[in-house]
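ok here's Geranylgeranyl transferase type-2 subunit beta:
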Amino acid sequence: MTTTSSSTSIDKTQKVSLQVPTTTDVPPFFAGLHTSYIAGLAEKLDAKTSYEGAVTEHLRMSGVYWSLTALSLLKSPEEVDVIMGLTAPTAGRPISIVDWVLQCYDNRSGGFGGNIGHDGHLLYTLSAIQILALADRLQDERFLNLKESVIDFVAARQQPTDGSFTGDEWGEIDTRFTYCALSSLSILKALDRVNVTQAADFILSCRNFDGGFGCTIGAESHAGQVFTCVGALSIAKSLHKLDADLLGWWLAERQCDSGGLNGRPEKQADVCYSWWILSVLSITGRVSWINRDKLATFILKCQDDEDGGIADRPDDMADIFHTFFGISGLSLLGHLHAAIPECAPFRQIDPVYALPTDVVQKLGLQGQIMVAQEGDSVEERLQQYDTLTSQHKLFQ
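and the structure:
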């Protein structure tokens, strides 16, 4: 959505090596290249002749969220604002990202669409709220005028029969939508507008014999759905109903010989699962159940060392989706901030809300995490976590 300001200097040659003592031949982390890739992506997608821009027009809202959050793990909030034009226009771009987000509000439904003029949907409504949170604009008068309608839109998606959520008025049900609804309402301090207990019960009804979760009742377990289900249970304060050991076993089995993680049995490793799986292992206190060094090396090998960005697998083409999830995975592993120490105090990612921990802390958001300690009951290991301290617990 934005281009890089001409006054902003980006060092495309910056290469910061990650120190992973137990792994040899670890590629460097190209922080400068990734910053440049993210900053220049919108200009590329906005070009009238851009094929990529045309085929991704419908999910631009999520693309902006991925871009901003990835950059927020590499740069300070002030730098992100200048580079991306978050709250003010940049050279060559007449409106800020915040202005654009507000223009994506769908008056008819009350939610936000994936782009201007698109129908409202829970997926893009959450992305819009996350972007406004990143920009510290949830108190913007323009959004406050829409807030009740947005809450009504989200709350109206819950089905009274089983507590599930539809993505929009057309009725598709998916566990992703439950997470989107609970996360959105939690950020907006409106969880009391839905039946949270019933929503958690629906999530639990989608649990399979292997410990994983599917998109609906009886659907195959998938690592992406596992994140949305466990994240929703965390927000709903229902982690005590989770069989974390069985789930942790299934997730640990997703690590391939390459060190990467796959989403289902017999599938190839893909960088995006670095987030989907690591976030759940972080929430449940079981990050040590996988080889973290091998995973970090796999992510680093998926970087484009010429133009920046991260691909799904080594030597494939980079895209913003995998760039976000790769950088987020490195953040959860603790490797990213060993490479860029100046970012460590304020730019880590929260495993429940998928936002920088300083943003989550400022909003006063709470979920649950488990601290894995032998001999403790599940109830004793559950904690209402403070994001300023939880990161230390996740890696013990």
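+1. The CA atoms of residues 103 and 116 lie 6 Å apart.
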